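[job 0412] stage=complex_fold ligand=iron/sulfur cluster status=START
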Amino acid sequence: MTDLSVPFRERAGRALDDHFLQEALTIATTKFIELRREAFGSFPEGDALRDRARAIKEATLQRLDAHLERLIDRVEALGGHVHFARTAAEAREIILGIAKRTGARMAVKSKSMATEEIDLNEALEHAGVTPVETDLGEYIIQLAHEKPSHIIAPAIHKTKGQVAELFTRVLGRPAEPDPEALTRIARAELREKFLQADLGITGANFAVAETGTVVLVTNEGNGRMITSLPRVHVAVMGVEKVVPSMTDLMVFLAILARSATGQKLSVYTTMVQGPRRADELEGPDEFHLVLLDNGRIRQLAGTLREALSCLRCGACLNVCPVYRQIGGHAYGYTYPGPIGILLTAMLNGNAAVRDLAHASSLCGACLDACPVRIDIPRMLIALRKENVEAGRAPAAERSAFGAFARLLRHPALYRAAAPLARVLQRPLARGRRIRRLPLFFGAWTRTRDLPVVAPRTFSERWRALERER
Ligand code: SF4
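[job 0412] stage=complex_fold status=DONE, emitting structure tokens
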């Protein structure tokens, strides 16, 4: 668990000093970037489908209430139960209520950022229900008592050597740092749990309003086991995950796996339609869909509206120069990376990202990589602006930029300041650069140089030229 009382700068610094983390991140993110590039390189329709996907998302958000009503009607017609949770606490309460009523003692889970968002595992444990993560990455971090550090690859921060050491220590089985061998061990450990569990808990990548179908895309097949073996299945999804029709779903499926892992399609696309019917051999007795608001609906008319189109593919994390250096835990919240900063602001308020909003070079790589072309840099700038206007920027920064703004607004002051600055900078300048500023200004030059004030400013040159004419 990340300690949020430690400032972000310090958390990031520790991540930069962690050589295992650096090694694991470089290998994994580079691989993801290459796979995505190859996948779209051999998919000429890709760009048009990305535009189409974005248009569908935008149109869906405009009539979100109608699509949700239709989804609810369809799920209920199929024999499922739909619950609406305004907050994380309400979502936990709903799920714990289902667990209590059905006498559940063990819950198997497939990877779900929505359940991470509502801290479900802790709540289940507290209520005497043992949660077992069954996605390999989630299983690893559950054994390590950690949180996911990537949206689709929760254990991306661990090397295979670290996983082998973890399995050996926690499971008491000697394990080699070989992914196949490690997967076999996890498989053997988890197989029994699927059979023992009374409750299956999943997220949802999409829910189709027209048919009441909840869609899960996975690569390990655990999602399929969870939705068919336990007596009760609970799916938790953010309200924005609804898509109008099966035709729309196909557009998203065509770009999601390519963006996430470079696959044409994920290995399993599981479609759940309510509980088991009389003529079916497998499936749960009860199916529950928990629709989670938790700050999303407010953003339909908010600064972060565009972020509601996110497919959670993780591509923006892989290309982000900040994420690639510090990994996910340094961000401190459930959702890391550039989109994670926006989602953190959505769920926890703008004050939570006072520093995080600056954890971006605004290079635009996330916008280029995003399958639905979410303009993350634009929203990060908006968050920075809102935080400055709300007086949340550090006092030193506020006074420095306030003084600079006054200078720029008053030409006479600006003209007088340039010769003065030239004198003051003399002891600090090395050639055309200042490498270290004194006092709290030193924070600016800790990671970059400051160019010296030019021997003649533009306006001084201009005036000189006019005199010569
Ligand atoms: S913002 Fe775009 S790139 Fe990032 S996770 Fe969401 S859909 Fe993927």
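Residues 18 and 326 are 9 Å apart (CA to CA).
[job 0412] exit 0
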